Amino acid sequence: MLDGVVRASADDRLEDAFDVRHEVFVEGQGVPVDLERDDRDDQPSTLHFVAYDEGRPVGAARLCPAGDGVGKVQRVAVREPDRGRGWGHRLMAALEDAARGAGYDRLELDAQTHAVAFYERLGYEVTSDEVFTDAGIPHLSMAKDL
User: Fold this and answer.
1) Does 134 fall in a domain?
2) Which end of the chain is least crowded, N or C, by CB within 10 Å?
3) How many CB atoms lie within 10 A of CB 98?
4) Average pLDDT, the chain
């Protein structure tokens, strides 16, 4: 039985990642479907991750290229009943390991303001001067050197 964080690809676990994201962002936060799923999901350079608890998908994240040596962390999501159990931390650890392996030396992300403290505990620092809105949700930009 699958347990832990794995990289997802189109031929195996990508739908699990999309299901988690849909539940968290579209159903849970009211993000429009056409904003949650975008063309970056299908780019060969995008890396997708899924967290499994005893075979059940509980979290997802993706990593996209954002420039020379820079990766963009996006769509980090953990299903509500599974929050507070370390899945977000495990997703980010797996994503950061993969980013190092892919040659990234810096990661950037746009954090929902309620999640800023989570990312700060992982070593990310706020880089934007002001809160901005994305899909109707307040965010701050953050970054971490690997």
Assistant:
1) no
2) N
3) 16
4) 95
Task: Give the model confidence (pLDDT) of 60-85 as tens digits.
Answer: 999 999 999 999 999 999 999 999 99
CATH number, domain with residue 75 = 3.40.630.30
**pLDDT band, residue 9 (cuts 50/70/90):** confident
Q: Are strands 70-78 and 56-67 parallel, antiparallel or unpaired?
A: antiparallel
Own/partner long-range contacts of 78-83 (Cβ < 8 Å, ≥24 apart): 78/20, 78/24, 78/51, 79/20, 79/23, 79/24, 80/24, 80/28, 82/53, 82/58
Contact 52, 4 (CB under 8 A): yes
Q: What is the biggest distance separating any 2 CA atoms in the chain, rounded to whole angstroms? A: 45
Count, residues in the chain: 146
37, HSE (Cβ side, Cα atoms, 13 Å): 13
Does any domain span residue 129?
Answer: no
pTM of the model: 0.93
Residue 15 to residue 37: CA distance in whole angstroms: 12
